[in-house]
């Protein structure tokens, strides 16, 4: 009988083990996507997510048609729709690639349990390089800190990526499908997606092109360039990885192949790229083993932490109006493009949780709504980490200084000038902390603090002390 291949965050034909293995059997294949925001514990998508997903599904459905197949799209509780489609086509097997967050795992388990014995279920590993069961500490637990995790896995070899299936056999009839347009995933009033579309093209094909471009043009300098927020020197593969348009095995294999062929790509560059892909895995392992990463402090000492409740400050941060140019540039890059450079994510994260003393969960939620790569593992784990509530490698008392960070990573102020245009005429000596500049410098650049650009909403020195005092109460 036919095989239903249930597609989730793996919107690709290339290196998609569930799809490839189904195709190999020679049996009819029914690809199914369910937009599930209703099952217990499953999060609704953010605004930027929806925009991305719409375009990604469009491209994926097109690619499937090119293979003689068709994507069935449903919206609602996954269990209802998966069981319904299995029945409608008389499927005798359900194939899918594993998911790792607790809510999705329970959905997957519940479906497997509900199926009768004549429908077999096969799960594949596709979306992270190391399955959570495959990495253990010496005492049999899981790693809570990245560096020892990296040391453990840094020499592991990976399976080869699997090529896209050549064709997919059709069932007698495809099941009923929704129209993507009826899901209203695209923003309309207003349509704020222009900036996102300028910066990114969703879909497998664009992801593959970006991967090639990165390996060809950027990889050789990646280990040096990745800390420069003003330059396009990172892979920007994060949304493609988030939606599974690119498999991490393919990303690694392609980069590694380039590195082994080209002497101009130093060992440091390829190692750094691998380390970043492993960060992603590490976050998934934390989520898998710890579970409630999105709600519960990884370090439970923080359960009694006195976060400040300030809607006004939270809004100033969200809108990029804190008066700290590097923070504001980051928040506006996020709003305009759906993405933010990693260094700046750390700066704005530290600023929210330490300078403003606002709960990391508020930052996480905002990122979730605005990032195209907002990822249940990486976003929650990285917010816990930067907010100090995560593992001890980034203790709370390590507080970023937004001015020295800005001077160090955006020395000429190019990044700030791009996203905070009202400061663009300030010289680089004044752009990192305009409130310290003299009147004539500001006047020449057309800047009036408090009018054309805000005064800092907190004094970093005082805010730092306030954060340390709050931390003293929980540090035990
Ligand atoms: P590159 O430097 O080219 O790295 C290659 C790939 O490695 C990335 O695409 C990404 O998949 C992975 N990667 C790199 N750094 C990290 C990291 N620190 N953690 C996990 N994976 C990493 N990343 C997300 O994918 N989704 C998120 O929701 C997310 N939220 C974050 C929130 C905060 C507060 C912070 C500090 C970081 C967050 N990151 C998140 C990690 C990181 O900022 C992005 O993965 C990275 O900026 C993506 O850009 P890139 O693809 O050009 O990265």
UniProtKB/TrEMBL annotation:
<dbReference type="InterPro" id="IPR036155">
    <property type="entry name" value="Crypto/Photolyase_N_sf"/>
</dbReference>
<dbReference type="Pfam" id="PF03441">
    <property type="entry name" value="FAD_binding_7"/>
</dbReference>
<dbReference type="InterPro" id="IPR014729">
    <property type="entry name" value="Rossmann-like_a/b/a_fold"/>
</dbReference>
<dbReference type="InterPro" id="IPR018394">
    <property type="entry name" value="DNA_photolyase_1_CS_C"/>
</dbReference>
<keyword id="KW-0285">Flavoprotein</keyword>
<dbReference type="InterPro" id="IPR036134">
    <property type="entry name" value="Crypto/Photolyase_FAD-like_sf"/>
</dbReference>
<keyword id="KW-0274">FAD</keyword>
<feature type="domain" description="Photolyase/cryptochrome alpha/beta">
    <location>
        <begin position="1"/>
        <end position="129"/>
    </location>
</feature>
<dbReference type="Pfam" id="PF00875">
    <property type="entry name" value="DNA_photolyase"/>
</dbReference>
<protein>
    <submittedName>
        <fullName>Deoxyribodipyrimidine photo-lyase</fullName>
    </submittedName>
</protein>
<dbReference type="InterPro" id="IPR002081">
    <property type="entry name" value="Cryptochrome/DNA_photolyase_1"/>
</dbReference>
<comment type="similarity">
    <text>Belongs to the DNA photolyase family.</text>
</comment>
<dbReference type="InterPro" id="IPR006050">
    <property type="entry name" value="DNA_photolyase_N"/>
</dbReference>
<keyword id="KW-0157">Chromophore</keyword>
<dbReference type="InterPro" id="IPR005101">
    <property type="entry name" value="Cryptochr/Photolyase_FAD-bd"/>
</dbReference>
């Amino acid at each position: 009988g036919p095989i239903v291949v249930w597609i989730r965050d793996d919107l690709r034909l290339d290196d998609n083990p569930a799809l490839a293995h189904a195709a190999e059997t020679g049996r009819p294949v029914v690809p199914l996507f369910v937009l599930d925001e209703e099952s217990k514990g499953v999060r609704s998508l953010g605004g930027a997510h929806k925009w991305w997903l719409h375009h990604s599904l469009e491209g994926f459905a097109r690619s499937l048609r090119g293979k003689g197949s068709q994507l069935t799209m449903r919206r609602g509780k996954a269990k209802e729709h998966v069981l319904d489609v299995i029945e409608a086509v008389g499927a005798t097997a359900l194939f899918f690639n594993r998911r790792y967050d607790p809510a999705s795992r329970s959905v997957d388990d519940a479906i497997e349990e509900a199926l009768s014995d004549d429908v077999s279920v096969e799960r594949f590993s596709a979306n992270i390089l190391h399955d959570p069961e495959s990495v253990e500490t010496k005492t049999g637990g899981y790693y809570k800190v990245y560096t020892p995790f990296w040391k453990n896995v840094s020499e592991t070899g990976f399976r080869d990526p699997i090529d896209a299936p050549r064709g997919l056999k059709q069932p007698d009839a495809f099941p009923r499908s929704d129209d993507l347009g009826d899901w209203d995933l695209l923003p309309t009033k207003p349509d704020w997606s222009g900036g996102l579309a300028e910066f990114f093209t969703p879909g497998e094909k664009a992801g593959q092109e970006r991967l090639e471009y990165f390996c060809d043009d950027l990889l050789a300098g990646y280990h040096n360039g990745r800390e420069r927020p003003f330059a396009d020197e990172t892979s920007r593969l994060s949304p493609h990885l988030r939606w599974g348009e690119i498999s991490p095995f393919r990303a690694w294999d392609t980069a590694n192949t380039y590195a082994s062929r080209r002497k101009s790509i130093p060992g440091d560059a390829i190692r750094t790229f691998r380390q970043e892909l492993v960060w992603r895995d590490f976050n998934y392992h934390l989520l898998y083993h710890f579970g409630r990463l999105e709600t519960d402090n990884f370090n439970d000492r923080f359960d009694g932490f006195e976060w400040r409740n300030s809607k006004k400050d939270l809004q100033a941060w969200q809108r990029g109006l804190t008066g700290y140019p590097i923070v504001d540039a980051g928040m506006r890059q996020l709003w305009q493009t759906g993405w933010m450079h990693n260094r700046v994510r750390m700066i704005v994260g530290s600023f929210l949780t330490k300078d403003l003393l606002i709960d990391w969960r508020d930052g996480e939620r905002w990122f979730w709504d605005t990032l195209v790569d907002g990822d249940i593992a990486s976003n929650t784990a990285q917010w816990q980490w930067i907010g100090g509530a995560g593992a001890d490698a980034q203790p709370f008392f390590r507080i970023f200084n937004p001015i020295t960070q800005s001077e160090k990573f955006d020395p000429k102020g190019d990044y700030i000038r791009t996203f905070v245009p009202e400061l663009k005429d300030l010289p680089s000596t004044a752009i990192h902390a305009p409130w310290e500049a003299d009147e004539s410098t500001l006047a020449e650049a057309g800047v009036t603090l408090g009018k054309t650009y805000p005064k800092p909403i907190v004094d970093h020195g005082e805010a730092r002390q306030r954060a340390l005092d709050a931390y003293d109460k929980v540090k035990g």
